[in-house]
Amino acid sequence: MQPPAMKTSVDVSRLPEVPLVRGPRLSMLRIPSAWAVEPSLYARAMDRHTRARVLSVGLLPREPARVRRFEAGQFGLLTAHVYPKGRWERLAVCNDWHAWLFLFDDEADELEEVGQRPDYLRAYVEACLAVLRGGRPRPRATPLERFTFQLRQRLRGLASELWMERFIHDVEDYLLRGTLLAARHWTDGTVPELERYIEQRALDSGVYTALDLVEFAEPGQELPEELFRLPLVQRMRQLCTRVVALTNDLFSFEKEVLWHQNPNNFVHVLRVHQGLGLEESIFAAIEFINSDTDAFVACEEALLASRLSDPRVLAYVEGLKAWILGNVHWSLVTGRYSSPTSPFPELRR
């Protein structure tokens, strides 16, 4: 794990009021139109399924306001966009994992009693990891532990041991090398250095775990190790993760930085360390994301030129493209990011 960054002179709780942005727009994100695909028709069924599961283990309190907020997230629509050809039984698991990520993210990023207590947070995630690795929930297990146990049982019934090992490794990186580091920055009031933040965000986003599900959503699509480790495949996986994670920072800027004073956001990092105004930092963030998307397209062209014809690799690349595009489509319609005071006009609903 990387050491914590030195304290900066910027206190995020004392930043001045931020005016509405009139220049940059989310429509400036550059995504090839040829990537468009029809989403799965299971979106609403997945929402009903996952809501019932998180309610049954107590992960979602039976409070009308909390349930309405969960339903407004429309996680089934995200799953439908990013795994458009998935089978129902597997999509239901994928959607449950997305709910796991978002519900945990809400606790770690919004609740000071969780996100600003790194020792408590470490014990919390270690308990879930122990269950994911094969242990049983503790006698007084948290709802997240119980939900993790259910997910592990269903994943193991559908996936190979090799895939499970990779998935668990990525979950460990997400929680131990990503989330805990972000929590330490929030607790200490430090703003990560730019390059370190980009590395941290790739892990803290949980996107690598979601990309593992590209192989899982359809039977017969798991990549053998020699294909998974191909340099071009790994580079496209890295670029896709960065694009999705940093794009999410645009959508969640208001919630994370302006509402919760959390310094772990790409736009905020650019503002602090490059001395940019809000509009300039958003333009810079969009340009960085677009540059990564262009690099992804170049990697796909190189992969196709290599005449590697294994259909599992080609399907995996299509899955990465679906994530880049589907994440934007879903983020524009979900209730998680819409706000009448959003810096982005597209979200002021």
TrEMBL record:
EC numbers on record: 4.2.3.-
Record bears the keyword Magnesium: yes
Swiss-Prot/TrEMBL cofactor(s): Mg(2+)
Broadest EC class assigned to this enzyme: lyase
GO molecular-function terms, A-Z: metal ion binding; terpene synthase activity
Coiled coil: none
Domain of life: Bacteria
SUPFAM superfamilies noted in UniProt: Terpenoid synthases (SSF48576)
UniProt xrefs under InterPro entries: Isoprenoid_synthase_dom_sf, Terpene_cyclase-like_2
Keywords: Lyase, Magnesium, Metal-binding
Matching PANTHER family: BETA-PINACENE SYNTHASE-RELATED, TERPENE SYNTHASE
Membership in a protein family: Belongs to the terpene synthase family.
Protein known as: Terpene synthase
Natural source organism: Melittangium boletus DSM 14713
High-level lineage: Bacteria, Pseudomonadati, Myxococcota, Myxococcia, Myxococcales
